[in-house]
């Protein structure tokens, strides 16, 4: 377990950052009167996600790999962190939609033209499933990009 302590720590930090972002969105009215900014707001979060992954990989490089980490090791670190995030995402989604913004689904359905299709899409079960798969896919993309920039560069003579 100690081998994955950094990934677990940063995965938990990611979830707290995700929930803090949701609170900010709620405060700014993104889940209500400013719903038209929801997609933009969601995309902006991934700037912070990239930062979190980069900090996690830097810590792993420094404290576990003694300053020498290749791209594969960085990707593996990101994969393990992504798995932690995917495991915690159902709890984060439940917290978001039950505690932080219980009005979210109702507002999204009401703003949609096709209420039946929207009801199938905007519900807790659907969002939990989507968030797990999205966390796995975007997590690997962010990991690969962050690992590329954080890997130890080979010295050429």
List strands and helices in order, with pairings.
Blueprint: H1 5-27, H2 38-63, H3 71-100, H4 104-111, H5 115-121, H6 124-150
Quick description:
With 157 residues, the protein is mostly helical.
Descriptive notes:
- By secondary structure, this protein is mainly alpha-helical.
- The chain contains 6 helices and no strands.
- It has helices spanning 5-27, 38-63, 71-100, 104-111, 115-121, 124-150.
- The protein starts with a helix and ends in a 7-residue tail after the last helix.
- The model has no long low-confidence stretch (mean pLDDT 94).
Keywords, separated by commas or semicolons:
157 residues; mainly alpha; 6 helices; 77% helix
Total beta strand runs: 0
Q: How far apart are the first and last residues' alpha carbons, in Å?
A: 40 Å
Helix and strand string, N-terminal first? HHHHHH
Beta fraction of the residues? under 5%
- Number of helices in the DSSP assignment: 6
Shape descriptor reads elongated
Overall structural class, as computed from helix and strand content, comes to: mainly alpha
Helix content: over 70%
Enumerate the spans where pLDDT stays under 50 for 5 or more consecutive residues.
none
Q: Strand count, sense and closure of the main sheet? A: none
Q: What Rg, in angstroms, do the CA atoms define?
A: 18 Å
